[in-house]
Inverse folding.
């Protein structure tokens, strides 16, 4: 079994909070992680209709069957239990509950209403490159890594990506999207997802997308929200320290998993990535999401932004830590070039003492340090994770 980085923080939060909530996309490994980390706690899933019916008929009686606590998967299916859990942990803080679910928007809504101040919240995304490297399961070629993606079942069950992602997409759309939204045309929604995939790494233009899909802008805005809170897409926000320059205010679109992204782009084998029009976007997507995974796995909020002014100057990522701003350029090319630092140098002249170092993440395999900054291979980004 591949060891998850988040285990250390999960155990720590469990120690200090009576309730722990583990968020994340469907099939990111939440249930397996919880059962293996806390084997002494009973586990139930409310996706089982029998469990759900018994609990709904007598919530307090059901919970009282577990005097030391309980792991409840798909907890959003029974929102009535949250107030009962509140009463139980308030009366006896030694009783522990761990909640998880695939419909994170519902789970978080119920938690904020009844369990605020009593719950520690973590987010588990699919495997990180660091986790796979530790088990020697990260393939040496970027194209193979991106095409395969990072969902645990692909590795645990050795499922070919071409089999996994169609099933995953249908499961997500049928069980999550169609239940939560008023969408009646699943084909239109999947086409909308494919349209977003074609715009990976680009600014989110709601009007343009709405025109292409044939629906209202507010509908697209609602769909984007559902995709974001259910961890299908990630919106990289612009950094608002404008250094007296007018800056772009619109976020960029990325996908939580590169394998799903490749499937939506109708890429059928890894070698097609090399000549695909979205090659740069796929590479950029990988880097940004690996940075995001590292933050979540260490119980930290995301600290990645992008910066672009109205004159076309741009930095792919700005990492904000304490009083430091670290600019990062992303290049899918295997070639080393000092010109990759041009945009970073411009940014650092504006940021002055707030930015002392710049990085380039590129498609090659050799770390290079020059006066302008450091070039990091795509599979050796530990230096960025420490920021």
């Amino acid at each position: 079994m591949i060891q998850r980085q988040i285990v250390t923080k999960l155990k720590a939060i469990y120690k200090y909070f009576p309730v722990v909530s583990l968020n994340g996309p469907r099939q990111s490994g939440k249930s397996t992680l919880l059962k293996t980390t806390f084997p002494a706690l009973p586990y139930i899933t409310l996706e089982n209709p029998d469990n759900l019916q018994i609990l709904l008929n007598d919530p307090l009686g059901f919970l009282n069957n577990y005097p030391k606590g309980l792991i409840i998967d798909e907890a959003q299916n029974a929102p009535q239990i949250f107030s009962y859990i509140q009463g139980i942990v308030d009366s006896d803080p030694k009783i522990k509950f761990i909640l998880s679910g695939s419909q994170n928007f519902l789970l978080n809504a119920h938690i904020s209403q009844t369990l605020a101040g009593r719950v520690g919240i973590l987010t588990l995304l699919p495997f990180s490159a660091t986790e796979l490297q530790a088990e020697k399961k990260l393939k040496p070629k970027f194209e193979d890594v991106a095409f395969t993606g990072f969902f645990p079942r692909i590795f645990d069950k050795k499922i070919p990506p071409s089999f996994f992602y169609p099933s995953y997409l249908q499961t997500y759309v049928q069980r999550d999207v169609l239940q939560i939204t008023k969408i009646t045309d699943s084909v239109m929604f999947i086409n909308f997802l494919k349209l977003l995939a074609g715009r990976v790494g680009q600014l989110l233009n709601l009007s343009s997308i709405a025109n292409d899909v044939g629906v209202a802008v507010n509908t697209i805005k609602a769909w984007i929200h559902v995709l974001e809170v259910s961890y299908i897409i990630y919106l990289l926000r612009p950094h608002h320290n404008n250094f007296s320059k007018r800056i772009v205010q619109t976020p960029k679109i990325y996908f939580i998993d590169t394998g799903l992204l490749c499937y939506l782009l109708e890429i059928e084998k890894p070698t097609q990535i090399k000549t695909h029009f979205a090659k740069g976007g796929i590479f950029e997507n990988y880097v940004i999401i690996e940075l995001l995974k590292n933050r979540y796995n260490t119980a930290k909020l995301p600290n990645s932004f992008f910066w672009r002014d109205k004159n076309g100057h741009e930095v792919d990522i700005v990492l904000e830590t304490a009083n430091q701003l670290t600019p990062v350029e992303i290049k899918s090319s295997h070639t080393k070039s000092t010109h990759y630092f041009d945009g970073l140098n411009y940014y650092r002249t504006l940021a002055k003492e707030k930015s002392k170092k710049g990085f380039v993440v590129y498609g090659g395999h050799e770390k290079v340090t020059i006066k302008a900054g450091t070039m990091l291979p795509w599979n050796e980004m530990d230096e960025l994770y420490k920021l």
Notes: The radius of gyration is 22 Å. The chain has two domains: 7-123, 128-387. The CA atoms of residues 333 and 363 lie 5 Å apart.
